[in-house]
Amino acid sequence: MLRSSLAALCLLSLGAGSALAEEPILGQWRSPGGRIVEVKDCGGQFCATVLTGQHKGKSVGTLSGKGGEYRGTVTDPRDDRDYAGTAKVEGSRLVLEGCALKVFCRKQSWTRA
Q: Hey, what's the signal peptide range on this chain (predicted)?
């Protein structure tokens, strides 16, 4: 009985360790327009794809980084234009910024879905 309890405790702690190791950007986010966007690990980077709404299935960015701060490409799903972008996880918000020519920038805040 004691051995099985210890084995179960070890398995639980291993699972918790991998969950803690996940990046905070992973998961589903709600954009200001109400669309749900999912951010997944895609081979060392993080890929964001629209799950709902008019642009369902479209990529809206590819980012890399860790610990809540990320850089990469943000894509506007309305016209498929790419912009240099950043994303920062702030609690239950994901703050994204995309810039054209490093001058014309736009910020958007998403919430955890």
A: 1-21
pLDDT band at 8 (very low <50, low <70, confident <90, very high): very low
Domain count, the chain: 1
Report the C-alpha gap between 67 and 25 in whole angstroms.
9
Which CATH number do you get for residue 69? 2.40.128.520
- Measure the CA–CA gap between 88 and 109, rounded to whole angstroms: 10
Would you say residue 66 lies in a domain? yes
Residues 6 or more apart from 14 whose CB is under 8 A from it? none
Vertex 21 angle, CA 20 and 27, to 5° = 80
How does pLDDT run across 86-112, given as a tens digit for each residue? 999 999 999 999 998 878 999 999 999
